[in-house]
Amino acid sequence: MLSEIINMNYLVVLLMLLWIGFTYACTCAPRSEAEMFCSPYTKFGALVKTKDDGNTNTSIVRRMRRYKIRTVEMFKSGTNKVNKNVIFTNLNSAGCGVTLEAHTYYVLTGDVIDLNKGKKKPGSKAKKNRMKVSICDLVKKVNPPECPSLDDMKPSLTNYKPEP
Questions:
Q1: For a tag site, which of 25, 47, 67, 149 has the least CB within 10 Å?
Q2: Residue 86 CB contacts under 8 Å (≥ 6 apart), including other chains
Q3: What fold does the segment set 30-144 form as a domain?
Q4: Which pLDDT belongs to residue 137?
């Protein structure tokens, strides 16, 4: 009888430890946007527009989700040999991954994954490095201002008279 109670206590403790392990799989120290952007550990900062939602069959690459992006502006870059057409993140939030919406503008900071580290062979072409973002980095959805089309501007341009 006593051994069953002890075994039950071990089971309860084990279940509690498992629950704590799953709940705190990815945690980050609280930081301001300025701290995230200006940190020496931040390797890139960019304004990007996503082209897809990262949920296609070709979007999953070695346990990472790949988003096709259009880089509008790079603010900070640890290297100029970065693939600016895609960004990577872990598959889910337990691995610190982020979810980005398609056709949306974001200001992102993150790390650069060096694909050539220790793999440089004589005569081989160097691979472009990857940008990687996580929930510990700055991931901010932004709405850039709408720019008028040239057609909308034509009436004001035709009436323009320079001052003497």
A1: 149
A2: 66, 67, 68, 69, 130, 131
A3: OB fold (Dihydrolipoamide Acetyltransferase, E2P) (2.40.50)
A4: 92
Q: Nearest 5°: CA angle at 134, between 133 and 137? A: 85
DSSP letter string, 36-65: HHH-TT--EEEEEEESS-S-SGGGEETTEE
Closest CA to 85 of 75, 97, 72: 72
DSSP 8-state assignment for residue 157: H
Distant-in-sequence, close-in-space partners of 85: CB < 8 Å, separation ≥ 6: 68, 69, 70, 71
Residue ranges per structural domain of the chain = 30-144
Q: What is the Cα 67 distance to its own chain's centre?
A: 9
Strands (E), 6-160: 44-50, 60-61, 64-77, 86-90, 105-113, 130-132, 139-142
- CA 114: distance to chain centroid? 16
Tell whether pTM > 0.90: no
The answer to whether the beta carbons of residues 78 and 112 sit under 8 Å apart is yes
> Which residue positions in the chain have pLDDT lower than 50?
21, 157
Residue partners of 9: CB distance under 8 A and separation at least 6: none
Distance CA(130)–CA(68), nearest Å, equals: 12
